[in-house]
Amino acid sequence: TYVVTDACIRCKYMDCVEVCPVDCFYEGENMLVINPSECIDCGVCEPECPAEAILPDTENGLEKWLELNRVYSESWPNITQKTDVPADADEMKGVEGKFEKFFS
Ligand code: SF4
Ligand code: F3S
Fold this sequence. Notes:
It holds the Pfam family DUF3470. The chain contains four helices and four strands.
């Protein structure tokens, strides 16, 4: 599966949802997550993300993010279409420590 990581927080560009063939993205207030049991591992979302927030779970150190994607995709609503991007998305791109400050 692929997972959304902290680089998405407060950026939320939503280009990923437009390309996912199985509509497995779920929306929180500040970021999206992928449902790992629905993701078919096609990989098309990874290069679409301007924040480089999407990674394959085969990369090291992503256990925490895989678990967060799994847990929150169970309760957040499904999202299949891009809507308004946060006004300060570009300023938030690459900012460190977003998980501690803004995760929701
Ligand atoms: Fe969707 Fe493919 Fe990305 Fe999985 S890897 S979330 S199926 S676009
Ligand atoms: Fe987030 Fe990137 Fe999608 S910033 S909403 S994972 S395009």
